[in-house]
Amino acid sequence: MFLLLGAIALGAACLDLPDRSPREDAAPGAEVITVRAADARPLDARLWPRDPARLVIYLHEYQRTQRDWWEEASRGRPNDPSAMTLDLRGHGDSGGDHQDFDLMEDDVRTVVAYARGRGYQRIVMVGAGLGGTVGLLVARDEPAITVVGLSAASDFAGLDALEASKAAGPRLAMVAAREDLSARESLEQIARAAGLDGTRALLLPGRAHGRTLLNADSEDATRRLMRDAFDRAWRQPANVNR
Asked: Given the DSSP bridges, would you call strands 51-59 and 122-128 parallel, antiparallel or unpaired?
């Protein structure tokens, strides 16, 4: 009986926090934030507070963590947009199962609500891979949110971003590499569904995927796409209906 209870307790713990190293301290200059999901699982985030009204939320790839984005998020002058990184459910220091993909959209919506409670009214999501797909789903009925997808999947484990892309089209910007065949196909599908032209659906040489599009030969074009998307988002009225 005691062994059985112990096994059950261990199983419950594994559902809340996956096997990983202990929680890291905050990245330099960042606040450590825990937001509770609808099922009370902890969602671990970092916030670099700068501009009090504008925020960029960075979402990582599948089986990666927010640490991928810390260097990027920590860049910025005092008047630049604030930045936040987040461990998706079951990744890094966030609780839950890393394959509960259908819960990730609501998790990110909860984080967005937290951000708005802090005063951030203009929000851009930059998502790599799975993070881009989740960002698209959130933006579907959030007209105040712009999404930049780096190798975002049009369909990830049943998360269908194509219908979402149609609704969020004017607020999307996508980039992928030509030799990253799955990401290339997804970009082409999303561009058709959302009506994106070549300035907002960018296909670059090479095979870089996700966050690595911000490295080496693809960096300049990817950053230019991001800057243009940010500029459009910051010009958007703060009182867009939500």
From this structure: parallel
